[in-house]
Please model this.
Amino acid sequence: MRVLLVDDEQELVETLAERLSIRGIEARWVTSGDGALELIDREEFDIAVLDVKIPGMNGINLRKLMKEKHPEMKFIFMTGHGSQDDFAAGSAETGVDYYLLKPVSIDELILKMNNLMNT
Amino acid sequence: MGFLNNLKPAFWDQRKLGGAAYRSLFDFRRTWYAAVFVTSAVVLAPLIFMAVMDYRATRHDVESEILLTTSRLVSNIRRTISYFFDERRCALDFIVNDNNFRMDYRPEHLEAVLENLKKSFGGFVDLGLIDPQGIQRVYAGPYHLTGKDYSNQEWFKQVVKHGAFISDAFSGFRHIPHIVMAVKYRYNGGSFGVLRATLDTENFVNLLSNLEIDGHGDAFMINHEGVLQTPTQSHGKVLQRISLPIPKDAPETRVFEWVSANGTPLVIGYRYITDTPFILMVVKNKPELLKAWDDTRKELIGFLLISAAFILFVILWGATYLVNRIFQSDQKLIVTLHQIEYTNKMASIGRLAAGVAHEINNPLAIINEKAGLMKDLFTFKEEYKQNEMLMGLVDSILNSVTRCGRITKRLLGFARHMDVSIQTVNVNDIIREVLGFLNKEAEYRSIQISIDISDDIPDIETDAGRLQQVILNIINNAFAAMDNNGHLQVKAGMADPENIALTISDDGCGIPESDIKRVFEPFFSTKTGTGGTGLGLSITYGLVEQLGGTIDVTSEVNRGTTFSITLPLAIEEKEMKNSCVYS
Model:
């Protein structure tokens, strides 16, 4: 399972990627939407974990663009923001179960990713 | 006073209440006064004006009518009296011009003439013939007056001068008033004689006293000196001076008003009777004449008073009704303004909380990952895995992060609910979420909270934010009512298949019977002076209404208070939108 982490907090995605690697999940990370779109052209990913608020681009739009390129790709939102609008928009795209509020425990994240891969 | 208090409209004592913001847009008592005063003035002034005008016009008519009838009466009597005198004088003229009379000067003949006069006219007492020297030559009558010298008497001079004469009344030998009537006649040779007749006044006294005159009226005659010639009912006896003024000489009938010595207003009509020394007077009592007018006046005033009372009643009722309606809508407006303010405040708090939570969540996530990585690294290295102290430290960090996460999630949840929307709400969750904010206070004050939520409650479709505010407000009130070590009970169950019932009970100080009806009224507060606006429960009431539910309260002083709320399983979005245009 290859995972792409997109979040403007580099420290967060970096560490999370390392922790996932320790658990045998191959994870790459970028801190911008453009970087993410660039990266998926070069490499294959099964799942993308996106923040809703990314500099220069909305996470929800980013998901749409990525989905156009790789329709088979699965998505999880992970955000620190909880406004009703974001929640409604985000959870409508991915389902309530895959709209996670930071901080997220790594075990829960892996559980969600496994669930998503099996559906 | 109790009766008056019942009548007193709600707005009356409004300005006595303490001063919260948006107290009131108007001074309702003044508005009421102004409405009542202006309407009364506009409506009553013309009515009173018309009534006064009508009163004056009618009174004027009545008075003119009195004067007119009096004048007419005087004219009629005058005609009769004049006729009376003319008739007798003509009789005397007829006698003196009769040839038999001129031929025959014997007293027997005069006696016969007197007898005939008595038969046909009545009232003649005696007759006498007087020569130009004033000596009575022949006499017929009860006295012995033959040869009496009248030459120095005024009446003789008058009759010689004018040809006819009628005297004032005088008291005769039998103390009966008499008058003398005399006519002059000429012989062919140029000499002259005078025929003198004495008449008692009984005939025209009867004429006058038999008249029926309205207003206790009195008809009588006086001479030009004001001496009564005929008896009166209340103005003196015959041959006495009259107590009234002698009217001015006038050729026609006149009427004037006078106030008698004892203060009675009188209407006096009079007429100088031509060729006699008499003045005919008709005196009427004015108050008696005005009695009929009194009834009309009473009716007029009664009508005015009843109309005014009715109009005033309608004005008072109308003004009270209208001002009360304005007052009520004003109150509603104030409550709405407060609700807007309150909602805005809550929304601001919500946005602030969300901002804070968001800002904290990101670094918290980093701490979480870093500490998690540390733990991962420790777990893979045997030497650290055995070090319980290091593992304990990392776990402690991770636990704290989890705790912080719970707090920020709760804040975000609260903030999210500030936005108006209908969503599926789990009653259990929402109650626990609200209590989450109050747990610390409950802990400090040792307040025990028991939650009893029945399992058969389905999730309901409602506005979670409003429901949260309702529950929060009521529990805050309960906390304020309770001392330390109090008990709070929150129960939820099905009220009926369409509604859920939520009851929140405390064992606090309770609400007195007299206040319980008013607790949902805006500005009703028992916490006066402690910063209460008196709006908490009224806003709560409004929120429950917006949720399509009902709220009720029962309470016992020193035993506690129970708020019972019923909420429908689903509310229509349209209904919400209508009632929350401001959100």
Observations:
- Chain A touches chain B at residues 9, 11-12, 15-16, 18-19, 22-23, 80-85, 87, 101-106 (CB under 8 Å).
